[in-house]
Write a structure and sequence with these properties.
Length: 191
């Protein structure tokens, strides 16, 4: 589907008041996966398409700035990769099978896969205004297997990631406008 078609799907789902994180998982997370390469990326993308996995894109940090300078870093300690940092406003919060996490390594930006059940992952749920949950994810020297790197760090990834986030925001806006339109229709029918 192109973005016009996807906007039509998101519009219909929003108007139906479907409480599913479709735009966050099937648009934003899928788009983030397209920045990567390899078998893991392909397997994760296939699972998003089939609906067998719910995947969230963890990109916002403590400041809440979507595509600002990354504070989450990956480093090498004794030959092992360690992730340090914090992501906020991760949606969906609970119920996600895992997270695509943006990180900085030197001057480049990369993406890694963090399964929800990875030992050492700190999770704090937060309620949003609509009653759904989002979450904070903290990584304190979290061991990341080398094969969990989806997109190797490079300087061009930060701008590409910002474009993915922009498209996700557009789909969220489409969804919210259709929810508001439907809420207005319900209200007018009641009156």
């Amino acid at each position: 589907l192109n973005y016009g078609h996807m906007a039509c799907v998101v519009d219909v789902l929003g108007e139906a008041l479907i409480p599913e994180p479709f735009a966050a998982t099937s648009v934003l997370a899928a788009e983030a996966l397209l920045l990567g390469e390899g078998k893991l990326r392909d397997d994760l993308l296939e699972s998003v398409i089939s609906g067998s996995r719910v995947i969230a894109f963890a990109y916002q940090e403590v400041s809440g700035v979507a595509a600002g300078p990354l504070q989450t870093v990956i480093s090498r300690e004794n030959g092992a990769l360690k992730l340090n940092g914090r992501k906020r406003y991760v949606y969906p919060g609970s119920g996600a099978d895992g997270y695509i996490v943006s990180f900085r390594d030197g001057d480049g930006t990369g993406l890694c896969w963090i399964p929800a059940d990875l030992p050492g992952l700190e999770i704090k749920e937060e309620l949003r205004a609509d009653g759904t949950s989002c979450a904070s994810r903290a990584f304190n020297r979290l061991a990341v297997p080398g094969n969990f790197i989806i997109s190797r760090p490079c300087t061009g990834n930060h701008q590409r990631m910002a474009s993915v986030i922009d498209r996700g925001v557009i789909m969220a806006c489409v969804e919210l406008v259709s929810v508001m339109r439907r809420a207005l229709e319900i209200t007018l029918d009641y009156l």
